[in-house]
Specification:
The chain has 293 residues and is mainly α. The protein has one domain: MetI-like (MetI-like fold). 76% of the residues lie in helices and 0% in strands. The longest helix has 37 residues. It is flat, with a radius of gyration of 24 Å. The protein starts with a helix and ends in a 6-residue tail after the last helix. The C terminus is likely disordered.
Length: 293
């Protein structure tokens, strides 16, 4: 009797989980699908039933978004900034996480605590101080050379993105490196490999699932970041989220909805493609915690 009751409870629990997951998936899929369908509608179709399927494929919306709203230029800026940010981040975070997780030295505990403290700093709170600091440096350069370089600079924005993502990235990678057995390092040391050779040839390949998670998470973070991009890029080098907001304001005022939704698709599409590509490895990275021996 107790066994039957336990089976019934477990079945009800599974049904509840499945229903919850299906409801969550529907709340995500329906808005995304609606945006994709709306991006290929003609403007006149928005005045009827907003949930109706498009009568045809109106790709002119994307042409207008790229041509009139400069979405192509904003897209290129976002690609450059995001790529540079990931490069700077990995170059700094991977060695730092490896050293902090595998070695004990004077000040290592303080550095670990310092990194963890950075997890509680919200980028929104330091955007204005960062802007004022760069503005001061720009003013100094303009007095000396007549031209500044710290504002409206994609490389500087990428460096700031990487800096703000360092605490979480180092913490995540360190947590993964800690789970890896030391047998591989000992074997490499016996074979005469130094610390750098061991890190690049043995430890980093073993940590590939965790590195993929870091790349995907930070790609989404950098790609969709708005506050720093708006504050530090006051000129023409706007990134895609800032350009999208300008497009939304312009097209809403002109009552031209097709290009507006086309701009949303342009922002969403790279993230969806990246997720589809790395989905399998992402699942592996979330389940594999190291080599068990």
């Amino acid at each position: 009797m107790k066994k039957s009751k336990g089976i019934r409870t477990e079945t009800l629990y599974k049904i509840f989980i499945y229903v919850t997951l299906i409801a969550l998936a529907i709340t995500i899929i329906i808005p995304v699908a609606w945006v994709f369908l709306a991006s290929i509608k003609e403007n006149a179709e928005f005045y009827g039933n907003p949930w109706s399927l498009p009568e045809g494929i109106h790709l002119q919306n994307f042409v207008e978004a790229f041509r009139d709203a400069q979405m192509g230029e904003y897209l290129l800026n976002s690609v450059i900034v995001t790529t540079l940010s990931l490069f700077f981040l990995l170059v700094i975070a991977l060695p730092a996480a490896y050293v902090l997780s595998r070695f004990t030295f004077m000040g290592s505990k303080f550095l670990n605590s310092f990194v963890k403290a950075g997890l509680f700093i919200n980028v929104s709170y330091i955007a204005v101080p960062i802007f004022l600091m760069l503005l001061g440096w720009d003013s100094g350069l303009q007095e000396l050379f007549g031209e500044g370089m710290f504002l409206n600079n994609r490389v500087i924005l990428a460096l700031i993105y990487a800096s703000t993502a360092l605490p979480f990235t180092i913490f995540l990678l360190s947590s993964y490196f800690v789970t890896l057995p030391s047998d591989f390092e000992e074997a490499a040391s016996i074979d005469g490999a130094g610390h750098f050779r061991t890190m690049f040839s043995i430890m980093l390949p073993m940590a590939k699932p965790s590195i993929i998670i870091v790349i995907l998470f930070n790609f989404l973070l950098f790609w969709n970041e708005y506050i720093l991009a708006l504050t530090l890029m006051p000129g023409e080098n706007k990134t895609l989220p800032v350009g999208l907001l300008n497009l939304l304001a312009a097209e809403r005022a002109a009552v031209n909805y097709g290009p507006m939704y086309a701009g949303m698709v342009i922002v969403m599409l790279p993230t969806l493609i990246l997720y589809i590509i790395v989905q399998k490895r992402l699942t592996q990275g979330m389940t594999v915690g190291g080599v068990k021996g």
